[in-house]
């Protein structure tokens, strides 16, 4: 039976690792298992492929969300190509996007000034009340996005005429050798742009872009859960040539004092006084939409559960509803007056030997224990 690979374990990170942590771990492991450093080692080459595969998924917000929800099968249903079906050139492209183009014979020069100053996709957060997540709602999201500075045309230079970087000669990268390998890293002088600013733009402080605050109304689907993300197309950062990324809204859901959610199921605790637990009967409990009556059997046990099918949350993807699970919590009196003590004693006596089960349960046990030490 095939065992599904855990991408988080492959990159040696936790499931809530940030994008920076994903990249940092990938850099370390990709260098460790790179074929140029492990020539002829097939196991290292396979590990290098898997590390690249994991990074390809976990560094992409949309792929990561799909993987977290549905696993590898969900990605493959969307056309994701595994590393076993990719050649080393494909993997080299992934590697170069992080390390640059001059490592170990991979790829070609990217050229100075061609890189995007900031990612086009952005993430924002919003908090929902318990009922808003269950039934859906409209939510106004206030967030900031980046766009190229109009005053300098995105160059960062007041005169829109930056000069070629003298350190990297406009390539945007610096190269150095270590043994038989050549490494490339982003030019520290120009930040990979290949250009140097002579007169810093006052509007963007030489960054080439500015941030603006905006807001948009997002339709929250019924059944959304804590930690889910919603993609809002063409609401992200604006890059070169007017290309715009997407906004990803990370959902947080507040707890409810009566209902506890676990996936599509809802749990609730129903307190029952000990006399009612002994006698049984019918009680009314609230569900997500209405009041329901359930029958409590005589002698119900503490933590015993009653399942109301289809009274849970509608699944955000297929609409199928989970269950409502009501769990009994038997309550006992904290204080008794003399009359109550007397009544309970009489009740206990009326059951005879049933009221003292410990006496029959442990009859002869003391003699047996004493025999152990003879």
CA-CA gap between termini: 56 Å
- The SS-based structural class is alpha+beta
Strand order of the largest sheet: 10-11-15-14
Could you please say which CATH topology of the domain at 1-108 applies here?
Helix Hairpins
Total number of strands: 15
Given as residue ranges, the uncertain stretches (5+ residues, pLDDT < 50) are: 101-114
Main pleated-sheet profile = 4 strands, mixed
Strand content: 25-35%
CATH class of the domain at 1-108: Mainly Alpha
**CATH-wise, what's the superfamily of the domain at 1-108?**
DnaJ domain
Q: Helix and strand string, N-terminal first?
A: HHHHHEHEEEEEEEEEEHEEEEHHH
- Helical proportion, percent range: 25-40%
Shape: elongated
By DSSP (H or I, 4+ residues per run), the number of helices equals 10
The overall average pLDDT, rounded, is 84
Radius of gyration, in Å, reads: 32 Å
CATH architecture of the domain at 1-108: Orthogonal Bundle
Give a short overview.
By secondary structure, the protein is α+β, with helices and mostly antiparallel strands. Helix content is 27%, strand content 25%.
Jot down its keywords:
374 residues, alpha+beta, Helix Hairpins, HSP40/DNAj peptide-binding domain, three-stranded mixed β-sheet, 10 helices
Write up what this structure looks like.
This protein has helices at 7-10, 19-33, 42-58, 61-77, 88-99, 130-135, 274-279, 338-350, 357-361, 365-371; strands at residues 122-128, 137-148, 163-164, 173-178, 181-186, 195-196, 209-220, 229-232, 247-253, 259-262, 265-273, 281-286, 291-296, 305-308, 324-331. The model is unreliable at 101-114 (pLDDT under 50). The longest helix is centred in the first third of the chain and has 17 residues, at 42-58. Among the domains are: 1-108, DnaJ domain (Helix Hairpins); 259-360, Urease metallochaperone UreE, N-terminal domain (HSP40/DNAj peptide-binding domain, Sandwich), CATH 2.60.260.20. The radius of gyration is 32 Å and the shape is elongated. Helix 2 runs antiparallel to helix 3 (42-58). The strands form 6 sheets. It has a 4-stranded mixed sheet. Strands 1-9-8 form a 3-stranded mixed sheet. Strands 2-7 form a two-stranded antiparallel ribbon. The chain is an alpha+beta fold. A hairpin with a 2-residue loop joins strand 10 (259-262) and strand 11.
